Structures are given as structure tokens and as C-alpha cells.
Amino acid sequence: MAEDKSSKTEQATPRRRLKAREQGQVARSRDLTNLAGVGAAIAVLIWEGPDALQRFGGMYRRMLDLSTAQQIDFGSPVLYWVGLETLRWSVPAMLAGFAASLAISFAQGGFVFAPASLGFNFGRMSPAKKLGQMFSISGMSGFLKSMLPFAAMLYVCSSVLTSRWTTLTQASTLGLRTYAAFISSMCIELLWKCGLVLAVWAAVDYFLAWRKMEGDLKMSRQDIKDEFKESDGNPAVKGKIRRMQRQMRKRQMAKHVETATVVVTNPTHFAVALRYELDMEAPTVVAKGQDLIAQEIKEIARWNGVPLVENRALAQALYRSVEIGFPIPSKLYSAVADILAFVFRARAEAERAAARKRAPSPDPGGPR
Description:
The protein is mostly helical.
């Protein structure tokens, strides 16, 4: 079932914009690009106009001199002169137009390489589909939009001609230079006014293209949730993974606490499990935790018969200064040694008491 566009009320996420960009979907105005190219080309032609007129005048003089000396045919240098002057006049304008078009296109959306949009699509070559697009509502709306700047330029041209109609009707009374200056000024006025109309329309067209793209990129709340699941994973699966990781850490911690010699507690907020053997240089922290983890460490220690010793200052110092798997620093040797000595004495007394219990009692009926 197609999703209602009214539900797409959220702005596009960066990932959605990146995917659209990879598919070549960026806000661009062809009118703005074309206007920049044509404007740059015309500006270059106007800039090099006086020099070009002098060069063409010199070329025509050489052609006339050559025609008086010999017959002009395909082997004469006339074609070379014409081609050279044409290239010198047109190539800078074409390069300027290409550079301006490229710069404006890059400014609108940057450099976009979308291989997905270059794939072969047979539907693009279907004449029936093209005709349907031409005579569809969107196609007609595009045609009508293109008629707006044409109508504006037609109005500008008619207004300019109307304002100068009296001078045009009296052209026979004007001298050649005066008439040429008049026509030139009228053409320049038409040129900059029509260019202004096209510039305004190109800006409007870019705004409409940007607004349409933003509307197409909008997402619903469900789209954002689905994207979050795709990018970061399903929350249920992630929760299950976290639970499994906690269980694995708990089992690993339990194994380490089982090998501990003593657990130093805060007594409620901190718990640090220490292990020490006679062949070790210094006691090593095998497990530590705070709050709930501390309670788990103490529970595991009680279950496995590991002594619990309360020393608030030492428990906090061990928790903050020693990482799991590392020996304690030398500044804590004395405090830890006192606790280990107490534990070893208690263990030795417990072993002696157990040995006395296991020893057989003397027989009262024996020899005296």
C-alpha cells in the first residue's frame, strides 16, 4: 500500500540525502546553468568586439588585395584566414561559456557522479512513455512554466519598440552613423532587459527545483525508524546482544573471582577482588565493580568461600587506580599486606581447627 504523502512531515536525514545524491538527485536549474553560459559568452564577445572588428577589417583588406593580384580559389589562403579569425573570435567565448556553466552547475549541487543513473533503462527509450510524459499534467505544467519568461521577454521587446517607434519611423531622416548608434543602443537595451528577465526566472526556477527536491526527500516517522533499524540495527537484536555480552562478562568475572585470595569492599559501593600467590611479585586485581557489579562480586565470593574484608579507603583506592589484570601500585603494598596477613592467619587457624576436628580422640579404655 502506497504511503500517503501527508504523513511525510519530517525533514530528510543525512543518510537519506546521501542516498539521493548517489542517485543523482540534487537541486539544479538548467535555466540558471544555460543563462550563465550564454551570459559569459556574450560578455567575452562584447569585451573582444573592438579588437575582433579590427582583425576582421584587416582580413577583408588582405582578401581584397589578394583578389586584385590573383584569382581566389580553394587553394588560396582565404579559407585559412577566415577559419583562423573565426576561431580567435569564437573559441574564447565558448570556453568562457563552458567554464561559467560548469561553475554554476558545481555551485548548485557540487560534483555528483551517480553510476546508478547511468544504467540502461529500456523504459526511457519507449516512445509511448515519452509521449505520455509530454502530454501529461506535469509535462504541460513544465511547458506553461517555460512560456512565462518568453511572455515577459515579449513584453519587454514590445515596450522597447513602442518607446522608440517614433525614431524608427523617421530613420530615413537620420544619418548612417546616428542610425547605427540608435540601433546599437536599442539592441543593448533589449539584451540587458531580456537578460534580467532570464536571470530572475532562473533564480525562481532554482528555488522551485530545490523546493521540489526537499518535498521529495521528506520522510515519515516510520521511514526514520526503518532507516534507524537499517543503519544501527534492530533495537531488539541489539538488546539481546547486550544481554549476551553482559552474561559472558558475568561468567568471566565469576571465574576470576573464584581464583581470588580476598575481596576488599567499601562495603556497599565498591568491591575489588585480589589474587596473590607466593611466586607473584605483587597482588593482582582480577575483578572489580561498583554498585550492582560490586554486589555480584561479593555474592560470587561468598558462594566460593573467598574472604570479604571491609576497608573503605583501600577499596576506593584500588578501584580508581588499578585496572583488571594489573598488579597493585607500590604505595598500596603496606595496606594490602596487612589484609593478606590477616587472611592467611585466619586461613591457617581454620586449617588447624579442621585438623584438630579430624584427629582421633584418645581411647579411655587404653593403657594407663
